UniProtKB/TrEMBL annotation:
Coiled coil: none annotated. GO terms for molecular function: ATP binding; kinase activity; metal ion binding. The active site is at E79 (proton acceptor). Mn(2+), Zn(2+), Cd(2+) and Co(2+) support activity to lesser extents. One of its GO terms (biological process) is phospholipid biosynthetic process. Belongs to the bacterial diacylglycerol kinase family. This is Diacylglycerol kinase. The keyword Metal-binding applies. It is found in: Cell membrane. Keywords: ATP-binding, Cell membrane, Kinase, Lipid biosynthesis, Lipid metabolism, Magnesium, Membrane, Metal-binding, Nucleotide-binding, Phospholipid biosynthesis, Phospholipid metabolism, Transferase, Transmembrane, Transmembrane helix. Its main location: membrane.
Length: 130
């Protein structure tokens, strides 16, 4: 995990229209690339691919597949927020503290809840096929 200060502290000019949309897409792509550096996120991608493959093989409905994809995207968003919390806490509170531990534990719990939800939904979808 890398914690680096921003190189330029000047405020960026507010973009509008298509420039704003393109800048937002670049920021999102940068966030995804940063998140791909996290082992947990790569493991969640593998889990998601396995769940989707299993549901496809089982022949679940397109609606069930769509729900699983949405749940996986929510999991990815939670992992991104958890990583952001960890980065901020490490920057603000580099020493070991109860505050830092609790903030990180809460982010981790949010990810755990979504992992459980994803697995639970996949199991339910498979059981409905039996």
């Amino acid at each position: 995990m890398s914690i680096e200060a921003p190189a330029d502290r000047r405020a960026h000019a507010k973009l509008r229209g298509i420039d704003h949309l393109l800048a937002s897409a670049r920021y999102s792509a940068a966030g995804l690339l940063r998140l791909l550096g996290e082992t947990a996120f790569r493991q969640e991608i593998m889990l998601g691919a396995a769940l989707l493959a299993l549901l496809l093989i089982a022949g679940v409905s397109p609606a069930m597949l769509l729900i699983q994809v949405v749940l996986l995207l929510i999991l990815a968003a939670a992992e991104a927020l958890n990583t952001a919390i960890e980065l901020i806490v490490d920057r603000v509170s580099p020493e070991i503290s109860t505050f830092a531990k609790q903030a990180k534990d809460l982010g981790s719990f949010a990810v755990f809840c979504l992992l459980a939800g994803n697995l639970g939904f996949a199991v339910a979808a498979l059981l409905l096929r039996i």
